[in-house]
Design goal:
The complex is a heterodimer of chains A (484) and B (95). By secondary structure, chain A is an alpha/beta fold. Chain A is built from 15 helices and eleven strands. Chain A has an eight-stranded mixed sheet with strand order 4-6-5-10-11-9-7-8, sandwiched between helices. Chain A has a three-stranded mixed sheet with strand order 1-3-2, with helices on both faces. In chain A, α7 runs antiparallel to α15. The longest helix of chain A is centred in the C-terminal third of the chain and has 21 residues. Chain B is 32% helix and 4% strand. Chain B is flat and about 55 Å long. Classes of the chains: A alpha/beta (484), B mainly alpha (95).
Chain lengths: 484, 95
């Protein structure tokens, strides 16, 4: 049952071959068996899931069900879920029971989907390995000694190990695409503003964007259909029609113009990963695409720009965690300052504190122009590079990550080396562009992801390009042996 | 550039973060490394470049000035660390 695609599950549910309660129980059983090994879930919502499943079964019987009614999913623990702990993998929110739903959660609930639970992540989505979680690291289902990537590492591990058919994630600098790449999944970060950020605990508001983590482009398209759309509750939500992302999956890609940025194939890229990506691009040529070498000359500015913009915005966003209205409060504060300082000092982990301090310094009196303003200017240069490139190509391709999954603990002592794991993914967040990662092969048994970047609101094209590859190859169908 | 113990203490105070005395040298080293990474931005000519605040250069949307939120004080205060008679309690600020 757990090997089926979302479409197959939907057909089975609608034909009455299986009920949503049975399907949900099957996944809950798998979670009970395997979660200890992977630590993919922080909270499992057994009672709530079965209740949602019963309601879904009724809708199916009454013929009022939609395509995804009755299908279970997992939410990254950054999305507020009413009545259910929403921890953001932080001690700060360990006791936080969200009083409302994120719009994404409301939307998939309305579609009749069943929430299995809340997945592990880097604390407040700050990390690329899922090692900064208060609840401990997540293990990569392909090799338990390695990281699943981050920050949506729990969602990626859960879908890769078939502890959920599909999951939500968020991507501020690569947090959907990088774990998708490391766990052999299809992960999409849509255009900034495409999916509502309401109720998605803010990290860097001008970069954060939600998206699906799935086992195929088709599954990702189906979940994106439910997630995307305008929302008055998010002031940066884009008022623009949402196409049916499955309608164009099978379109021909003959004549597709692919740009290969030379900066994405230079120093630092593992040669075996490079060879795998080159092979994937050859496949696209045989499918009728044409290849063009391009340049994104300001690529080297992306990581430094990001490490001003993201920490600056996070230092502001996380100021709401002050121990007064919700979240962790220190014992016996002697005065208000002590209450703030100790509640925050105790509630936040090391990486979060490091980023808050980086942002605080960058925004402190006298430094604003030198850091934040400068970074926002560099950000435009990076964005301009992409618009220049898209003037005569359709999509950009390259590796999602410079290496395959690294070992747990390998980069924890050196924040900068961890930051550089996102070197190919960060630029698209700064520019606000959509991008996805799809399975493209293996190096020494570990998955390699191909990144495909499109112009604004071209999610449908990205999914079409990804689907075409998945019709010609079966990398995305490979799954870690132990979890078959 | 190089940040020292005094800088870290000042930043931690601005950020309202209590940090362990023993952790200060590590923070100083990490923050120094981060700002040295950022330093390369200073070599970029950004004269006449408009800062990019929003990826789509969208404007703030306005709405009618109407009440849209119901009062949910009890719901929200149910998860508060300390409340009394509908207000949030903190240590005494004014003598």
């Amino acid at each position: 049952m757990h090997t089926k695609t979302l479409s197959e599950l939907s057909t089975s549910l609608h034909k009455g071959d299986v009920s949503s309660v049975e399907l949900t129980q099957h996944y809950l059983d798998r979670i009970r068996t395997h979660n200890n090994q992977l630590n993919a879930y922080i909270t499992v919502c057994e009672d709530e899931a079965l209740e949602q499943a019963r309601a879904a079964d009724q809708k199916i019987q009454q013929k009022t069900a939609g395509k995804l009614t009755g299908i279970p999913l997992a939410h990254k623990d950054i999305f507020c879920t009413k009545g259910v702990r929403t921890s953001c993998a932080s001690k700060m929110l360990d006791n936080f029971i969200a009083p409302y739903n994120a719009t994404v959660v409301d939307r998939v609930n309305t579609a009749g989907m069943v929430t299995l639970g809340k997945t592990n992540m880097d604390e407040f989505a700050m990390g690329s390995s899922n090692e900064t979680s208060f609840y401990g690291p997540v293990k990569n289902p392909w090799d338990n000694a390695r990281v699943p990537g981050g920050s949506s590492g729990g969602s990626a591990a859960a879908v890769a190990a078939k502890l959920a058919p599909v999951a939500t994630g968020t991507d501020t600098g690569g947090s959907i695409r990088q774990p998708a790449s490391l766990c052999n999944l299809t992960g999409l970060k849509p255009t900034y503003g495409r999916i509502s950020r309401y109720g998605m605990i803010a990290f860097a508001s001008s970069l954060d964007q939600a998206g699906p983590l799935a086992r195929s482009a088709e599954d990702a398209a189906l979940l994106l259909n439910e997630m995307a759309g305008f929302d008055t509750l998010d002031s940066t939500s884009v008022e623009r029609d949402v196409p049916d992302y499955t309608a164009t999956l099978k379109d021909s890609i003959v004549g597709l113009k692919i740009g290969l940025p030379k900066e994405y194939f230079s120093e630092g890229l593992d040669p075996h990963v490079a060879a795998t990506i080159e092979a994937a691009i050859k496949t696209y040529e045989t499918l009728g695409a044409t290849i063009k070498d391009i340049t994104l000359p300001n690529t080297s500015l992306a990581v430094p720009t990001y490490y001003v913009v993201a920490p600056a915005e996070c230092s502001s966003n996380l100021s709401r965690m002050d121990g007064v209205r919700f979240g962790h409060r220190c014992d016996d504060p002697k005065d208000l300052l002590d209450l703030y300082q100790r509640s925050r000092g105790e509630g936040f982990g090391e990486e979060v504190k490091r980023r808050i301090m980086t942002g605080t310094y960058a925004l402190s009196s006298g430094y604003y122009d030198a850091y934040y303003l400068k970074a926002q200017q560099c950000r435009r240069l990076i964005s301009n590079d992409f618009q220049q490139a898209f003037s005569d190509i359709d999509v950009i391709m390259g590796p999602t990550t410079p290496t395959t999954a690294f070992k747990l603990g390998d980069k924890t002592d050196d924040p900068i080396s961890m930051y550089l794991a996102d070197i190919y993914t960060i630029s698209t967040n700064l520019a606000g562009l959509p991008a996805l990662s799809i399975p493209a092969g293996f190096v020494k048994g570990l998955p390699v992801g191909l990144q495909i970047i499109g112009n604004y609101f071209e999610e449908a094209r990205l999914l079409n390009v990804a689907h075409s590859y998945q019709q010609a190859t079966d990398w995305h169908k490979k799954s870690p042996l132990y979890f078959e | 550039m190089s940040l020292d113990k005094t800088d870290v203490e000042k930043i931690a105070h601005l950020a309202r973060l209590a940090i362990d005395e023993q952790a200060i040298p590590a923070y100083a080293k990490d923050l120094t490394n981060i700002f040295n990474l950022v330093e390369q931005l200073t070599t970029v000519d950004t004269a006449d470049i408009t800062p990019m605040a929003h990826p789509l250069d969208a404007n703030q949307r306005l709405r009618a000035d109407e009440v849209t939120e119901a009062n949910q004080r009890e719901l929200f205060q149910a998860i508060a660390p300390k409340t009394e008679a509908g207000i949030y309690l903190v240590p005494q600020v004014i003598e």
